Automatic annotation (TrEMBL):
Pathway stated in the Swiss-Prot or TrEMBL entry: tRNA modification; tRNA-queuosine biosynthesis
Protein name stated in the entry: Queuine tRNA-ribosyltransferase
Source organism of the structure: Desulfuromonas thiophila
Cofactor entry: Zn(2+)
Catalytic activity entry: 7-aminomethyl-7-carbaguanine + guanosine(34) in tRNA = 7-aminomethyl-7-carbaguanosine(34) in tRNA + guanine
Key word Transferase present: yes
Family: Belongs to the queuine tRNA-ribosyltransferase family.
Length: 374
């Protein structure tokens, strides 16, 4: 069974250090989950992810349902065996991916009918089928099926969508079969404080093993994202894990932890790596730029990762310009090292009672950066 243990708090903020216990082992929080959408974190071996400190990965119901199929994965021993990862896996319900299909999908009370982005075939996802797919994958943390609300959106639409997602959440709870997996509810409500509160109240009445904030990082400015966190996180149970979905930049992670978030996921470190954008202690660095073609220095002088110890900016730029596969591998290695290391440093700062000093140093490094931040 899944449980959450609160280990310590920061006296100057809502930040907290905890431990999420899953059936496949503990997750020390706050934690970042690398995204393995199609049964792999792109350009990374599972062993390398473990070496970098990844504790839990995120898989995706929508993509694995369409290809290779959850039933096939179940016959082959489940997602962990299929992708050679024996740690915990959290699966997104598929709601966000269906939302991103736009005109290719139609939402009604039953669920979502959509056309596959692979072959145009007609498909259906419902709260019940989303849970069944995730349980067939043998996910350790299962997310309820919901609608990801676009931004901006009319209040009436947000209210109707949120109410439907809460009805879907109740159906997900009823469909979830006891197998040791956890089931998390997802708070919706758009950018409206009262709708967020109502969503929390309805989810608490249903009862879940943990709670997530959905509908963020959909185009709103960071200040509004933080405001929604400020409205919503204090309403969630102190004794259960809190997850903000699809977030975000290093700054978003620090600000989320400051507000009491335990879990994050985002494609940003991996996707940016493949596009030549690298994260450092001093900001972002675009390795594509010509200024690095003769630069013998590491990506980040303050980083001790394998890439920074062995490869120059000039070489990494060369690999990227040549479209070499190794560019994606090395860039992703570095970015995930940075993200996972950032979370580890925050956990340590919380344990040592110096989280406020950590935040001050984090922002000071960025304000004095000489690297490009574009």
């Amino acid at each position: 069974m899944t449980s959450y243990e609160l280990l310590c708090r920061d006296p100057s903020s809502a930040a907290r250090r905890g431990r999420l216990q899953t059936r496949r082992g503990p997750v020390e929080t706050p934690a970042f989950m690398p995204v393995g959408t199609q049964g792999t974190v792109k350009a990374m071996l599972p062993e390398t992810l473990q070496e970098l400190g990844a504790q839990i990965l995120l898989g995706n119901t929508y993509h694995l349902f369409l290809r290779p199929g959850h039933e096939r994965i179940a016959r082959l021993g489940g997602l962990h065996r299929f992708m050679h990862w024996d740690g915990p896996i959290l699966t997104d319900s598929g709601g966000f991916q269906v939302f991103s299909l736009g005109k290719l999908r139609k939402i009604d009370e039953a669920g979502v009918r959509f056309q596959s982005h692979l072959d145009g075939s007609a498909q259906v996802l419902t709260p019940e089928s989303s849970i069944a797919i995730q349980q067939a994958l043998d996910s350790d943390v299962i997310m309820v099926f919901d609608e990801c609300i676009p931004y901006p959106a009319e209040r009436a639409y947000v209210a109707d969508s949120t109410a439907r997602s809460m009805r879907w959440a109740a159906r997900c709870k009823a469909a979830h079969q006891p197998d040791g997996s956890a089931l998390f509810g997802i708070v919706q409500g758009g950018m409206h404080a009262d709708l967020r509160r109502r969503s929390v109240e309805e989810l608490l009445a249903i009862g879940f093993d943990g709670y997530a904030l959905g509908g963020l990082s959909v185009g709103e400015e960071a200040a509004l994202m933080y405001q929604v966190m400020d409205w919503t996180l204090p309403l969630l149970p102190d004794s259960q894990p809190r997850y903000v979905m699809g977030v975000g930049t290093p700054e978003n992670l620090v600000e989320g932890v400051r507000r009491g978030v335990d879990l994050f996921d985002c494609v940003m470190p991996t996707r940016n790596a493949r596009n030549g954008v690298l994260f450092t202690h001093f900001g972002r660095l675009s390795i594509k730029q010509a200024r690095y073609q003769d630069d013998a220095g590491p990506i980040d002088p303050a980083c001790d990762c394998y890439v920074c110890r062995h490869y120059s900016r000039a070489y990494l730029r060369h690999l990227y310009q040549c479209n070499e596969i190794l560019a994606a591998m090395l860039n992703t290695h570095h970015n995930l090292h940075y993200y996972l290391g950032l979370m580890a440093r925050m956990r340590q700062a919380l344990e040592q009672g110096r989280f406020a000093a950590f935040c001050q140093d984090f922002y000071q490094r960025r304000s004095s950066a000489e690297t490009d931040c574009g």
